[in-house]
Amino acid sequence: MTDVTHGHASSTGISNVKLGMWAFLGSECLLFGGLISTYMLYRGRVSGGPRPSQIFDIPFTSVSSFVLLMSSLTMVLAVSAAHKDDDRKTNLWLTVTALLGATFVGGQVYEFTAFYKEGLGFSTSLFGSSFYTLTGFHGVHVTVGIIMLMSLVGILKRSSVPGKKAEVVEMIGLYWHFVDIVWIIIFTLVYLIPV
Amino acid sequence: MTTNTADTTHEKQHGMSDAGYIRIAIILAAITGLEVSTYYVDFGVLFLPALLIMMVIKFVMVVSYFMHLKFDNKMFSFLFYAGLVLAIGVYAAFLATFKFFIQ
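^ inputs. structure came back:
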């Protein structure tokens, strides 16, 4: 099965851009794998600071997780609209996705502030360091995704997309969904499973 | 008519319609609700396996349907799952050296 409908094909008959993106996402698994493993190892090392069960606000984080999950739906609807050459809907869903992502990041900033006020600084304990590093890295990825989404909306409005428009939207979609699946793992392993 | 044709072409290329994506999102939301319920309801010995299974189901659903891996070239699946399996193997070994699994 070959994917000849998108972008420049490699010698394998599939899109170079898409191949590169999947290889990048495969490598990102190793990055987040390292951060998640380190957190799992250190999550019980609180050194007199607050324990996870004392500071985590599960209802709040559940809503944030739901928001990010729904942003994956709006992203896939944007990709679908782009494949149908419906620029209006593509821009609409991309903007909604960016807004949902911004809501998630805003929630994370609020959560970090609340944790800091409750005594969990970056260097308070190994738990604090590994927690902020893991969730902070994820937050940075979401922020980069939002910047890419808003840039894409601007580029689409000026109709100056380099290469095939639908493929560009799809590549940013792949990145966005990856950020979502990383959070699916973080939400379960970090927030729902007690130490 | 034009929209229907576009829908059909998109489904042929990517395997799903917009309604299909919405159905997947509803299932994902329901699973998330179940996950959150484990925090309030005592599932006993099923707690950990149930949470991990739900996490894997959500992961696979997003990758397969939203990221189109189920309908796309198998080379993409190989690249992604190779990275994932490598990460799981390497970090499982890393955690084992710290006796994480026998705590």
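Residues 126-157 of chain A form the longest helix (32 residues). Chain A touches chain B through 52 residues (CB under 8 Å).
thumbs up if we can close this ticket
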